[in-house]
Amino acid sequence: MKIRLRENGSLVLDLPEGSRYLLNGEERRLERAKLALCRCGWSGAKPLCDGSHKRVGFQAPAGEMELEAEL
Asked: What are phi and psi of 56, to 5 degrees?
């Protein structure tokens, strides 16, 4: 799985649209082909990103993290 760190923005997991996930025990489905997680700490929808990083002027470098499952 790859995690993208957007410059001055969120952490993004690229997943198929419609993927199911649990958030605090509640099942949800992705409406887009990505899951954006808050990295600035200001989101009103934590842990999901709501775009607050733009309003507060959050700054952080871009990057990428790749995770491999060991069998």
From this structure: -95, -5
